[in-house]
C-alpha cells in the first residue's frame, strides 16, 4: 500500500514538474504595455522546455512564427513589425499559451548613463527638476511607455532584469528619468507615434561599469574576481553591463541617448577610447548597424577638477565615432549642484538631434556652434564657427570668460566682439596672439550662444598642458 502511494505521489510530482517546465517564461522586457520598434524585424526570446516547439502569433498581421527551443530551453525568433500603431496582442505558446496585451508599435530608445540621466522628474532630495510639477500633472499619455531597469550588479552576464513596462501617467512619470521623458515626449509630439523608453542608469557610474569584460580586457582593465572585492558597484568594471544592459541586448531599438561622464573627469584621454569602444560594442551586439548615439556633455560645476579637458574630450568623441551627436550644457546654471535642474532643455536638445539626424526633419538648428578655425590679423585673433549661420550672441551682453595669450603663454582677459559667424578677440597686453580659450577653467558659466539659443562649448585653440 505504501508502495502504491509513493508511486502515485511521484507521478503527480512529475506531472506538475513537466507542466511547469512547459510553461513559457520570458524576460521582463517582454510584457504587457511594451513598445516594439516599428518597421523592423524585432527579436523576441525566452525559455521553454528543451527541444519544445514554440509558436509566436502577432495580431497586427495574423502571422505565426515558429522556433524550436534548444537543449537548454532557450529560444529566439524575429517578427516583422508594421508602421506605428496598436494596441496589439502577441501570443506565445509551446502548448500552454502566454499573451502579451496592449502592445504598441513605435519608436524605441535606450536611455543610459549616471545620475543626470537617472534623475527622476520628481527630483532628488533637495534637488528639484525645474518646472517638473506641471509636466508630471499633464503626463498621462497612452502612447508613451517607459521601462526602468532596477539597480543590480553582477560578475557574470545576466539574462533577465527587474522592471515593468508602464504607460505614462503622473504616477509613473514622477519616478521616470527626466531627461529620458522630455526626450521621448518631444519625439511623440513631433513624430505622432508611440515612443518606448528603455531606461538603465545608476548614479555615479563609470563608463567602465557599462562595458563587457572582453571589451575592457583590451585596455588592461579587469573585473573583480568576487563580489566581496566590490566596494562600489558603480566604479567596478563590467558589473552594470552584466546586470543592467546585457538583459536588454537585442531588443529592437532606434537608437541610444547617453548622459555620463562626471565620474570619469580624471581620464579625458582614456575616455575617448573607452567611449569609442563602448559604442562600437553596443552596436555590434545589437546587430542593427550603426544606430544613432546621442549624448550629453557634462555641465560646469565648481567642485570638480579637470572639467574643461574632459568636455574637450567629449567633443572629440563626436568627430571620432560615427553617427553620434553631443548636447552642450554650458548654460546649466548649477555651479554648486552636480545635478542641474534644467532637464527639459537637455532632453529636448537630445530630441533635436534625433528629429534632425534620425527622422530627417528640416527647418531648424540643432547643433551647438563649434570652432572652425582661427586666424590672426594684427593684434586680433578671429575665431570662426560652424553652425552659426545667424551669428553668435552674448547671453548677458558681455563675455567675461574669454582669454588670449601670445608666445609667452601668459593669459589675459580679452575684449570680445561678434561679427556674423566669427568672434574677434584681443587684449592690450597681447600684441601677437597665439591662442584663445573660452570658459576653459575649473568652473566657468556659458556666455556665448547661437541665435537659436544653443550654447557654445568651452574650447581652446592651443594644445598646451598648462
Task: Please describe what this structure looks like.
One of its GO terms (molecular function) is sialate O-acetylesterase activity. InterPro entries: Ig-like_fold, SASA, SGNH_hydro_sf, SIAE. Pfam families: SASA. The protein has about 475 residues and is α/β, with parallel strands linked by helices. It has 3 domains: about 20-105, Immunoglobulin-like, CATH 2.60.40.10; about 105-360, 3-Layer(aba) Sandwich (Rossmann fold); about 370-460, no CATH class. It is about 25% helix and about 30% strand. Strand 17 (about 400-405) and strand 18 (about 410-415) form a beta hairpin. Helix 5 packs across helix 10 and helix 8 (about 270-285) packs parallel to helix 9. It is elongated and about 85 Å long. It starts with a helix and ends in a 6-residue tail after the last strand.
Question: What is the second-level CATH architecture of the largest domain?
Answer: 3-Layer(aba) Sandwich
Q: Give the low-pLDDT segments.
A: 1-21
Distance between the termini: 91 Å
Q: Could you tell me the CATH topology label of the largest domain.
A: Rossmann fold
| Mean pLDDT figure | 95
Total tally of structural domains = 3
Domain Sialate O-acetylesterase: 107-352
GO molecular function: sialate O-acetylesterase activity
Keywords: Hydrolase
Pfam family, one: SASA
Amino acid at each position: 500500500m505504501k508502495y502504491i502511494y509513493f508511486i502515485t505521489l511521484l507521478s503527480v510530482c512529475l506531472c506538475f514538474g513537466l507542466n511547469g517546465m512547459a510553461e513559457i517564461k520570458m524576460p521582463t522586457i517582454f510584457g504587457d504595455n511594451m513598445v516594439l520598434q516599428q518597421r523592423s524585424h524585432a527579436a523576441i526570446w525566452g525559455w521553454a522546455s528543451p527541444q519544445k516547439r514554440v509558436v509566436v502569433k502577432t495580431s497586427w498581421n495574423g502571422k505565426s512564427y515558429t522556433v524550436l527551443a534548444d537543449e537548454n530551453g532557450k529560444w529566439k525568433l524575429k517578427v516583422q513589425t508594421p508602421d506605428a500603431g496598436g494596441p496589439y496582442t502577441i501570443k506565445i505558446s509551446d502548448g500552454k499559451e502566454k499573451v502579451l496585451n496592449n502592445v504598441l508599435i513605435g519608436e524605441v530608445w535606450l536611455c543610459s548613463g549616471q545620475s543626470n540621466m537617472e534623475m527622476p522628474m520628481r527630483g532628488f532630495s533637495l534637488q528639484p527638476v525645474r518646472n517638473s510639477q506641471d509636466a508630471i500633472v499633464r503626463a498621462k499619455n497612452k502612447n508613451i511607455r517607459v521601462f526602468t531597469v532596477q539597480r543590480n550588479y553582477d560578475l557574470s552576464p545576466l539574462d533577465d532584469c527587474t522592471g515593468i513596462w508602464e504607460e505614462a501617467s503622473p504616477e509613473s512619470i514622477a519616478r521616470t528619468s527626466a531627461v529620458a521623458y522630455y526626450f521621448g515626449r518631444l519625439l511623440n509630439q513631433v513624430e505622432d507615434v508611440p515612443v518606448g523608453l528603455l531606461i538603465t542608469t545608476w548614479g555615479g557610474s563609470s563608463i567602465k561599469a557599462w562595458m563587457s569584460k572582453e571589451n575592457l580586457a583590451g585596455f588592461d582593465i579587469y573585473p573583480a574576481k568576487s563580489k566581496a572585492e566590490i566596494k562600489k558597484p558603480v566604479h567596478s568594471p563590467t558589473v552594470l553591463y552584466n546586470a543592467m544592459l546585457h538583459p536588454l541586448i537585442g531588443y529592437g531599438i532606434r537608437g541610444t541617448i547617453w548622459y555620463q561622464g562626471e565620474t570619469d573627469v580624471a581620464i579625458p584621454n582614456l575616455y575617448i577610447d573607452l567611449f569609442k569602444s563602448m559604442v562600437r560594442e553596443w552596436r555590434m551586439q545589437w546587430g542593427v548597424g550603426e544606430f544613432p548615439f546621442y549624448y550629453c556633455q557634462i555641465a560646469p560645476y565648481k567642485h570638480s577638477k579637470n572639467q574643461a579637458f574632459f568636455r574637450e574630450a567629449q567633443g572629440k568623441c563626436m568627430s571620432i565615432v560615427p553617427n553620434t551627436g553631443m548636447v552642450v550644457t554650458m548654460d546649466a546654471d548649477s555651479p554648486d549642484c552636480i545635478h542641474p535642474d534644467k532637464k527639459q532643455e537637455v532632453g529636448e536638445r537630445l530630441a533635436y538631434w534625433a528629429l534632425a539626424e534620425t527622422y530627417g526633419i528640416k527647418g531648424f538648428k540643432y547643433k551647438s556652434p563649434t570652432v572652425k578655425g582661427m586666424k590672426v590679423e594684427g593684434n586680433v585673433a578671429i575665431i570662426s564657427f560652424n553652425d552659426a549661420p545667424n551669428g553668435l550672441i552674448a547671453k548677458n551682453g558681455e563675455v567675461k570668460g574669454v582669454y588670449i595669450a601670445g608666445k609667452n603663454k601668459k593669459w589675459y582677459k580679452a575684449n570680445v566682439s561678434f561679427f556674423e559667424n566669427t568672434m574677434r578677440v584681443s587684449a592690450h597686453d597681447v600684441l601677437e596672439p597665439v591662442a584663445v580659450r573660452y570658459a576653459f577653467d575649473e568652473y566657468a558659466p556659458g556666455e556665448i550662444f547661437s541665435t537659436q539659443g544653443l550654447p557654445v562649448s568651452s574650447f581652446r585653440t592651443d594644445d598646451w598642458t598648462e
